[in-house]
Write a structure and sequence with these properties.
Distance between the termini: 27 Å
InterPro entries: G_crystallin-like
Order of helices and strands: EEEEEEEEHE
Strand content: 35-45%
Strand order of the largest sheet: 6-5-8-3-9
Largest sheet: 5 strands, mixed
């Protein structure tokens, strides 16, 4: 399954520094990063699909429950400073899957507040 190949490391500091949270699988939806004491502190991340590098999507939302403004990252990548995306220290919820979510799927998630099926939902 593609989700088992996904890796995500989140950091509270720029350039992959300070506090880190690791996800070793995809198929995760975090409704409120406050559950990890990580609300509004995300500054950098490393995103990977170790088998198919293009098959991974991370969506960061500025409000809990997948609401507010958002940024989409598709494919394996390192982002050393979310300021470059005008999204430093604003992430309150996220969705991570081992495939490419379409813009339409992301709009549906935001309008319904429901993540894709077959993902683990983490609430506060």
């Amino acid at each position: 399954m593609a989700n088992s190949d996904v890796r995500l490391a989140l950091w509270s500091g720029n350039n992959f520094s300070v506090r880190r949270i690791l996800f070793r699988r995809g198929g995760v939806a975090v409704r409120d990063l406050g559950a990890f004491r990580f609300n509004n502190v995300l500054s950098s991340f490393r995103l990977r699909n170790v088998v198919q590098s293009s098959q991974v999507t991370l969506v960061l939302f500025s409000q809990i429950n997948f609401q507010g403004s958002f940024r989409v990252f598709r494919g394996s990548q390192n982002v050393a400073n979310l300021s470059n995306f005008n999204f430093n220290n604003v992430t309150s919820s996220l969705i991570l899957v081992g495939r490419n979510l379409t813009n339409s799927e992301i709009s549906q998630i935001q309008s319904t507040g429901r993540p894709p099926q077959d993902v683990l939902v983490i609430r506060q």
